């Protein structure tokens, strides 16, 4: 009572004529009210005036409509992030590339070998078709993208080595790899994580370690049940062909990318923004191809299936779009 009315997006009506329908309606009503008052909250980035959730949503609505009327090869949509500021979106990323000397893995560079192997690559590749990619996961509001990127790479390498696709625990890296320079929900570096796994001797399965909580926890790694021991962690040379060769021959890659403001609202198409900033998000590269004449990288994100193309994004493979060539890694197994 007394609160101003807020415009909110419409939710489809709930059919209550089934067992549990009335209870479901009450849950939806509660969520609706919660969303309404969420919109009425005020937020402000440093040095910026206060904005209500409704104002932020309206800004993004206009951005989506304006962009989608243009000639761009990709589309945007209003999604679960449409009411968040760019500053708030940092909590859904978390990549902090290490600058410590000697902390980076060795880079294998043999230009002649890469170019020769590239001649025999298929026109397109998708590791999902070959069984090396687990379901799309959701890091939620926790800066743990680096853990999801590293684990996605390791899951693929484990599959190539054993023929078994097993879900491995991001929570383990968040809880246990602090001495490698990572900080759980506060951010980390996937190369640090992969090298930590190499030193420890592997990880356990998600079932053995426990589910993902989207918060920092106490390490309870049981080293008696380690699997997926890593022999080497290698950084891929900074070229399109080197990335393709590494991807096809070594499985899904752990990569870092930059995320411009409209990245959070991506819907479909080949994402090719006009500009971007520093690398700030860890993802998993699982394939490449061509769509309507545009070459792309197929990338698995960790924002759930409701984002993008059921959790995936097509990133332009023209040049070093989003810095995708700068921080790419694969592992070889023992």
Automatic annotation (TrEMBL):
Keywords attached to this entry: Disulfide bond, Hydrolase, Protease, Thiol protease, Zymogen
Start and end of every Peptidase C1A papain C-terminal domain?
121-332
A Gene Ontology BP annotation from the UniProt entry: proteolysis
Gene3D superfamilies the UniProt entry points to:
Cysteine proteinases
- Coiled-coil region(s) at which residues? none
User: Is Disulfide bond there in the keyword field?
Assistant: yes
Q: Which SMART domains match?
A: Pept_C1
The UniProt GO MF terms for this protein read: cysteine-type peptidase activity
**What domain of life is recorded for the organism?**
Eukaryota
Q: Which Pfam family is an annotated match for this chain, by its short name?
A: Inhibitor_I29
Q: Keyword Thylakoid, does the record have it?
A: no
Instruction: Give the family from UniProt.
Output: Belongs to the peptidase C1 family.
Matching PANTHER family: CYSTEINE PROTEASE FAMILY C1-RELATED
What is the recorded name of this protein?
A: Cathepsin L1
Which organism does this sequence originate in?
Lygus hesperus (Western plant bug)
Q: Which gene encodes it?
A: Ctsl1_0
